[in-house]
Write a structure and sequence with these properties.
six-stranded parallel beta sheet, 235 residues, 41% helix, single chain, Rossmann fold, 8 strands, globular
Length: 235
């Protein structure tokens, strides 16, 4: 079965990586356990922000379009993509190409078409993300510790590199967003096509899912924020 084969590939991986999208948002607890079991860094799409707490040592964030993060992705020998289209609005925001997955790609999605779109996998599974993540956890069992240079250590080096590259406006906008959520921890931020939103897509990580929405995941449609905010308020 595909889940058994995926479990074997992940168990044998020396440098596993997880790419999670909004389609996996209800699998957040199981996905966090899976990442911790594997010692796998986790990159999230914009719609998946908050699936791991902001301070989690395995959280890369949503910087898949940046050179430093792409270098980490290129080092991974097995990549699990779950609930993500692997589309350019999350993985290539400059539309310049260059996001590559040299490692063995495993894809899980509830939509059969999405399991093969944009990047062809070595193995694909059509399944609900939460059910699949829980099945993988059961399949993996207890694993030996990964090498000291991967996992949290590799993410820490990446975050330090990215932080050193942020310019003053980026730091200021990130601080503004962090302050907003510190004061209003249960807030839902719905953004239009503005610079703080673009910055937040890269640098800001809420502690909970479904707290960060904007039109950048749909090619920057203007006028999105107000009606979407009304929808978020109505629940």
């Amino acid at each position: 079965a595909a889940i058994e084969q995926m479990g074997q590939r992940l168990a044998q991986a020396k440098r596993p990586l997880i790419l999670a999208g909004g389609g996996a948002i209800d699998a957040a607890p199981a996905l966090q356990q899976l990442a911790e079991r594997l010692g796998a860094p986790v990159a999230l799409t914009i719609n998946a922000k908050g699936m791991l707490p902001a301070a989690h040592p395995l959280l890369i964030g949503s910087t898949q379009s940046l050179v430093a993060t792409r270098a980490l992705v290129a080092e991974a020998d097995v990549v699990l993509a779950i609930g993500t289209e692997l589309a350019e609005t999350d993985y290539d925001i400059t539309f310049a190409g260059g996001f590559e997955i040299p490692g063995v790609l495993l894809r899980i999605d509830i939509d059969p078409d999405q399991t093969v779109r944009n990047y062809a996998p070595a193995l694909a599974l059509v399944a609900d993300a939460r059910v699949a993540a829980e099945a993988l956890l059961a399949e993996l069992g207890v694993l030996p510790a990964r090498g000291a240079e991967w996992g949290a250590a590799r993410v820490s080096r990446l975050q330090a590199q990215l932080a050193s590259d942020w310019d003053a406006p980026t730091r200021a906008q990130t601080h503004f967003l962090q302050t907003l959520f510190d004061v209003l921890p249960d807030a839902v931020c719905v953004g239009d096509s503005t610079q703080p939103v673009y910055t937040g897509n890269l640098t800001f990580n809420p502690d909970q899912p479904r707290r960060w929405f904007n039109s950048s995941t749909g090619y920057g449609t203007l006028g999105y924020a107000l009606p979407a905010a009304v929808g978020a308020w109505l629940g």
